[in-house]
Amino acid sequence: MRQPDFRTPAVGIDTVEHEARLHELWDSTPGLKGFFTTVDHKEIGLRYIVTAFVFLALGGVEALVIRLQLAGPNLTLLTPGEYNQFFSTHGMTMIFLYASPILSGFSNYLWPLLLGSRDMAFPRLNALSYWIYVAAGIFLYVGFLTGNGPNDGWFNYVPYASRQYNPGLNEDFYSLGMVFLGISTTIGAANFIVTAFRTRAPGMSLNLVPIMVWGTLTASVANLLVVPAVSLAFFLLWMDRQFGTHFFDPAVGGQPLLWQHLFWIFGHPWVYAIVLPAMGMVSDGLPVFCRRPLVGYSLVALSTVATMILGFGVWVHHMFATGLPGLGLSLFSGASIIIVLPSAVAVFAWLATIYLGRPVISTAFLFFSSMILLFVIGGVSGFMTASVPVDWQLTDTYFVVAHLHYVLIGINLFPVVGATYFWFPKMTGRMLDEKLGRWNFWTMFLGFNLAFLPMHLTGLLGMPRRVYTYADYGGWGTLNLITTIGSFILAVGVLLFFVNVARSLRVGAFASKNPWDAPSLEWSVSSPPPAYNFAVIPTVNSRHPLWEGRIGSEGPRSALDRGMLLDEGKETIGTSGVDAIPDILLEMPEDTGAPVFLTVGMSVVFVGLLLKAWVTLGIGGVIVAAALLMWMWPRRELREREPPRD
Amino acid sequence: MSAAPLSYLESAGKAADTILPLTWFTLIVSIVVCLVIGALLYGGVRRARPDDNPLDMQSIPIAQGAKGHNWIVIGLMVSAIPLAATLVWTMVALAAVAGPPANPALTIDVTGRQWWWDVKYASAQPSGEFATANEIHIPVGAPVLVRLHGGDVIHSFWVPRLSGKIDAIPGQTNLSWLQANQPGIYRGQCTEYCGFQHARMSFLVVAQTPADFQRWRQEQLAPAISPVTPGQERGLALVEYRCGLCHRVRGTRAGAFAAPDLTHLMSRATLAAGVLENNPGNLEGWIQNPQNIKPGNLMPDQHLSAQELSDALAYLESLK
Amino acid sequence: MTEVISAKRELMIATPEHLPVGPVGRHGNGMWGVGAMIASEAALFAYLLFAYFYTGATAPQGWLLEPAPTLKLALPNTILLLLSSVAAWWGERGVLRRRSIQALIGFFAAFVMGSAFVAVQWFEWQAKHYGLGTSSYSSLYFVTTGFHIAHVVIGLAVLFALFVWTALDYFSPRRRLAISAGVMYWHFVDIVWVFVFGTYYLTPYLGFAR
Ligand code: HEA
Ligand code: HEA
Ligand code: CUA
Ligand SMILES: [Cu+2]
Q1: Is A402 in contact with A455 (CB distance < 8 Å)?
Q2: Are the beta carbons of A116 and A540 closer than 8 angstroms?
Q3: DSSP assignment letter at A550
Q4: Packing angle between helix A340-355 and helix A276-288, nearest 10 degrees?
Q5: How far apart are CA C78 and CA C86, in angstroms?
Q6: How many Å apart are CA B149 and CA B112, to the nearest integer?
Q7: CB A289 within 8 Å of CB B54
Q8: For a pocket test of ligand 1, which of A103, A265, A380, A405 has the largest count of ligand atoms closer than 8 A to its C-beta?
Q9: Residue-wise over A10-37: b if at least 16 C-beta within 10 A, else e?
Q10: pLDDT of A554 over the 90 cut
Q11: C-alpha–C-alpha distance, residues A527 and A427, integer Å
Q12: Cα A275 to the center of its chain, rounded Å
């Protein structure tokens, strides 16, 4: 069979036979085989989300143990060694295994639906990044569970992380695990970037995409460029520990501060990367419950990008106390103060949207709107630490711990829970329980503030962070007790959330296509969507395809029920980068075991490196090579080669 | 010392004095911002109509509504004012506290070690130098230069009442300076995570009148007093061959530098980096099992026999 | 203006243009993917060189173990690597013009020159009077050049695959994205070397070495 190299895709409307054909082409194989071979972005997205929530629970439980230890002065629930592994693993889990993957999960699930595409640009890479994430997560947790968890904080400063002061496998698990995880993040980032530029629905020019796409796109560009810094840092550390190099060893000209630069060059952009997509969710979700479009779309999109650009130039604010020259400090201090402005744009845009619209109180709305306040509280504490002299007092006290929880929980966890209430109907076809939702929200909101608002004072009273216990001279006892109580209330809130999800999956009310009467494309398909997302490729002419006509939108209407049929193969449309003019028919890959296979190989490699078992390493290498060959071999179905000439 | 010795909302030294107003300014700006935004948010949410049901959204009309850009513009303008002020003030304060004074009255080398502070008083002539640990004496009213060294891993030197933090990093020497306004005892703490006992790596800064300080200095310069009673004799012998592996007692054969200098142990207010009050009971407890008191610290339990212990104590307690 | 664009959109629904099915020429998502990967790899090398300059700038005198590194092997080797890029490019043109012999020769030549580069670099390493663990300088030197060699080896594997696939007559000027992507990666590996070379072999001659 020699299909043509060029084709004019047939245009038409959705019909029963047509849908049957698409199911034929797109449904992934059922059963266990299908589980390991599927490349459906919705399947993968959901797995990302579930896995990340499991890690949230783990990190949370660790946090609760930490809180018990700190509930009062001189408690001895944990030994110093145990405590150090608990707080380090808590940070590592929350930052790397929850906060970032959860957003990848939502973006993975939603992007093709938001963009009017049938899948991501690279479905197989998508599966690969998920499997590597799981493998790396397991790798890191095997360390923790065998008493070899990270024990030098999540940013792991040298020389304490070096072998001389830190014998044992703890830091080797952490270093290699982070290099491993970095591969997943980088692959995911590349996939998002290409997806954003190449697979938008015809007509959906860049200025029409939902803000969440801007958020994840910005975050992905950043990750693509900065993750190598941290992977390199951890690799060099591992070399220092295992092969006698001296990158960080001052005795022979090494530079301990090199670690801090490499880490924070990554670290600061990263902390924005794990909130910008979440802020995007709010920018898209909040207006739905205000019954109007977002105020200042262009400014918000712009500020998203601006935040990240400035974000590349502020990393030294984590190193104010390292004795760098004053001039350098003042530059980074200035940048850190200026960076307040783009954030302010988003805040005021959201406030205006609420005021100039008609707010409707739903659980999702409560999470989205309360996030504004939490963001500001977390933001202003950042603004304080941005001032060098002030930071010389604040740094490494609980004030910073309060800051980072307000921003992380406030701009990541709250929007994520809100987003779950918002998109759960689309993902599962059932509504989450609103009544339980209110309980969920108020316990989380009150618990969180009870736990972390007093923590600012704990910091101002000078309690240093990362202490396994504290004497009673400091006057911190009561405050810490309050924080501990608040933490448990917060935990109950999170638990209620899990309960609501579990219950609603079975008994939740069925959801229509568009239960919130929302404007974007994902709401134009059934809940949950079919494997192929869109029966016909939509054509988009506005930011609110589903609100056209109801709000004055000039120009031709978007076409949702008439468009390219693309049912002659597993195909979707590729469009030009800015204007989204169709320019190619993309052949999408079938289900394949290659990603799992490759991940297994990589896991073996990393175990080999950890144990310095070169044979194991070799075996892993062979598996990886085989998997890559199987993956890369040019395929006719994908039009990567000519048909056999005979 | 006050109820919260590490609180930096009170200051008692030059650098801290310069920083505190800026801290209050940014703190107040922050609180005001939170209150304003909070109020706006509350006002906005209150506009919700009780009969709008989120489960029946179709029935609630949507509208293009006002453009609302002025919200953003005005918000940015208003925000810019405190930001600009903070920016300028930050630079001014930075200039004021960054560089140590040209000619300090006194120079001290402080080395952070797991998990105690090694303190050396520099002097033009070697005879003027001496070492102590976990307790820094300074004369009031004069700028004292502190040169910070990293003995092993990174530590951070912090005396909140007197000045901000500065890291002690292996391979580089960071400069800080202390200047106390009135005599008093100011608590300090290590604030860079440095391992097991990071939590218990404190120290004291004792600010004294110049006269008192000179007296103290003279006492510290003297070598350890020689034993008188036979018990102290035996104690010295024990300290020399047991404790001398790590500790130094000037004027005896105990001459190692891996641990706090014990020459004038009894002149210090605390034991084990501010963890224990320095009294005979605590001293005994510490020597017998430091690992219970500071788990993981680098001094092994000594398991001295009753006799040895009383001898050692007899000698140590004479080290005024 | 908007009328024009929107008119164009109307058109797209009614009659989309005649579209390529799957990657045609260099036009396809694969090229974007490899491009993204290269961007990330380039960043990695940027950080490696940052590590060199930062450590060097803050190190005590005498940090630079080779104030005047010999170019006897390194310079020719650099030229050799750049020539291999030309060979790969020539091979790609072979595919574009349906001259599979030219293509095979091109890729083979590139492969041989690349391998030679690795061999020479190996001797270069042997010749050093210091080892991986001598100092932070030596660690940086060996790990940075080592990272590069690793990339060269991957590049060689790619060239080898391109050779085999070409020999199997898989490609045509139209279906050859693998070729363009692979050759682009090889160019990247070669260009990166110019920076590594410049950093470790040339900047010391600028004199402000420590
Ligand atoms: C999760 C994401 C996230 C976000 C969004 C931020 C946002 C900001 N952060 Fe934060 N930061 C972290 C995560 C984040 N941070 C983490 C995890 C750490 C700790 C790492 C560790 O040590 O473990 C940290 C630590 C940290 C430090 C180092 C503290 C120290 O260790 O000494 C500093 C210093 O400048 C800082 C600054 C800022 C600033 C200026 C912002 C700004 O972007 C905030 C801007 C937003 C606002 C200010 C609110 C909205 C603005 C208005 C309503 C306008 C009006 C406001 C004013 C006039 C002030 N952060
Ligand atoms: C997204 C990031 C994130 C999140 C969500 C959290 C959540 C919490 N953190 Fe987090 N924390 C960090 C990121 C985060 N943290 C980071 C980066 C650090 C710095 C680490 C370092 O210094 O290196 C840190 C450090 C840190 C410290 C300081 C430790 C120290 O310096 O010594 C403390 C202490 O109170 C703390 C407490 C908490 C608490 C009480 C929560 C609460 O929100 C937890 C709420 C509880 C849950 C979410 C659990 C709910 C689940 C259940 C109740 C079980 C259900 C079980 C099943 C369903 C099976 N954290
Ligand atoms: Cu020393 Cu912390
Ligand atoms: Cu930061």
Answers
A1: yes
A2: yes
A3: T
A4: 10
A5: 13
A6: 7
A7: yes
A8: A380
A9: ebeeeeeebeebbeebbebeeeeeeebb
A10: no
A11: 7
A12: 8
Query: C44–A232: do the CB atoms touch at under 8 Å?
Result: yes
With 0-12 / 13-18 / 19 or more C-beta atoms within 10 angstroms meaning exposed / middle / buried, residue A159 is buried
Closest CA to ligand 1's atom 20: A404
Helix axes A256-273, C29-58, angle to 10 degrees: 140
* AA identity, residue A256: P
Distance B226 CA to ligand 1 centre (A): 58
Task: In whole angstroms, give the CA distance from residue A629 to residue B3.
Answer: 68
Longest CA span, chain A: 88
Q: Is the pLDDT of residue A322 over 70?
A: yes
Token representation of residue A333:
């201090």
Kind of pairing between the strands at B144-150 and B270-271: unpaired
Q: CB neighbours (10 Å) of residue B257?
A: 14
Residues C115, A628, A176, A179, CA torsion sign? positive
Question: Strands A582-587, B270-271: parallel, antiparallel or unpaired by DSSP?
Answer: unpaired
Give me the pLDDT at residue C103, please: 96
B251: its two tokens? 């004027």
Question: Which residues, including other chains, have CB under 8 Å from residue A366's CB and lie 6 or more apart?
Answer: A418, A438, A441, A445
pLDDT, averaged across chain A: 95
**Ligand 1 atom having least distance to the Cα of A337:** 40
Neighbours of A327 (CB within 10 A): 9
The overall pTM is greater than 0.90? yes
**Nearest-CB residue to B165 (from A337, A351, A396):** A396
Site residues for ligand 3, CB cut-off 6 Å: B 112, 115, 155, 190, 192-194, 198, 201
The number of CA neighbours under 13 Å toward the Cβ of C210 is 13
All residues of chain A having their beta carbon less than 8 Å from the beta carbon of residue C5 are 579
ipTM of this predicted complex? 0.96
* Chain center to CA of C208: 29
Q: What is the 3-state secondary structure (H, E, C) of B136-174?
A: EEEECCCCEEEEEEECCCCEEEEECCCEEEEEECCCCCE
Token pair 């994520």: residue: A416
Any ligand 1 atom below 6 A from CB of B79: yes
What is the pLDDT confidence band of residue C3, given thresholds at 50, 70 and 90? Answer: very low
What are the structure tokens assigned to B220, written together?
Answer: 């510290």
Question: How big is chain A, counted in residues?
Answer: 646
Give contacts of B67 with chain A, Cβ < 8 Å: 295
How far is it, in rounded angstroms, from Cα A571 to Cα C21? 9
List % helix, strand, coil for chain B (3-state, nearest 5): 40, 20, 40
**Rounded distance between C-alpha atoms, residue A617 and residue A622, angstroms:** 9
- ∠B224-B226-B232 over CA atoms, to 5°? 110
Give me the DSSP letters along A50-94: HHHHHHHHHHHHHHHHHHHHHSSTT--SS-HHHHHHHHHHHHHII
In A, which residues are within 8 Å of B145 by CB distance? none
Measured on CA atoms in the order A379, A380, A385, A387, is the torsion positive or negative? positive
Q: How far apart are CA A412 and CA A400, in angstroms?
A: 17
**B106-113 and B144-150 beta bridge pairing:** parallel
Q: Amino acid identity of B19?
A: I
A584 bridge partner residues: A574
Cα C47 from chain centroid?
A: 16
CB of A226 within 8 Å of a chain C CB? The answer is yes
Query: What is the rounded CA–CA span in Å between residue C172 and residue C184?
Result: 18
For A84, A238, A535, B298, the CA distances from A170, given in Å and listed in that order, are 11, 11, 51, 20
pLDDT at A644: 80
Closest CA to A576 of C86, C16, C197: C16
Identify the band that residue C210 occupies on the pLDDT scale cut at 50, 70 and 90: low
3-state secondary structure of C147: helix
